[in-house]
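User: Can you write out an input/output pair for a complex, sequences first and structure second?

Assistant: Here is one pair. Inputs:
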Amino acid sequence: MHELSVTQSVLDIVLRHAKQSNARRVLGINLVIGELTGFVDDSIQFYFDFMSKDTAAQGAKLYFERIPVQVRCHACGAEYVPPNSRLWACPECEALGSEIISGREFSVASIEIE
Amino acid sequence: MSIEILPVLEDILSANDLVALENRQMLDEQHVLAVNVMASPGAGKTSLILRSIEALRGCLQVGVIEGDVAGRVDADKVAETGTPVVQINTGGGCHLDAPQVRSALQRLPLGEIDLLFIENVGNLICPTGFALGEHVNMMIAHVAEGDDKPIKYPGMFAAVDALVLNKTDLMPYLDFDLEAFRTAVRALNQDVCFFQVSCKTGKGLEAWVEWLIRQSR
């Protein structure tokens, strides 16, 4: 459900940048989404199609670059993608405990305009 | 007309983060410690808040923002204790956001409040993504929901400063593996302050309340 409010933020950002560049139309939007954010692609596109009606971004296609979760082991410093649905243990030294270094991203990277 | 790629590089949650920062400043000016309380529905968020209010009476003045999809059941319970409370209904929204909290802060007597609980909407996913202006992020887990929750919802367990495991009085009736739970939590978050309580019997609450008092200093 929270895709509704974040899609409004996406649209606001896109329209502001499009206007600053005197774009006639926005054709595509490149989003970067970390796997930890829990945002659902289809849901964002669905709301976007609805909310962008009668704006310069109407009909724009959303492209999603998903960033996997990556952590750095506290014990040995190894960087690894933690396993899904299992304990987050380091594959190098088996230690528990790490720092999340990616996976919480959520940004508009670029837009395609004409 | 030609097509061009325009770099934007803008955080989608920046509008929310900006308001969260303003909330934080407002809280700091009034010397209020804000605690974002997160958990699944039915974990005991309101129960823990009510227990904390009771234990902190005469020590810290508590205020509460209640976030729920609908209704003011929780706010009414808090209001009965004489504690200032504002209910936010998100109308389907699965988390609180900073603008909602800002409007609630404007309706609270912040000058009289030392400790503000912001009870988020019951959900283990979305609330972590939205800063509210809080100083402390905490979550409540409970033994009836199973010991695998850290593995299923790593984002939240990794993001909190404190974790309260509630309903420990039910432990004898359940297959909750406390060691497995603690290990899974430690894998995600080594710095988390861990408390085991029963809001039903009151067991373990002293340590939690003492921790709250230390945070507010």
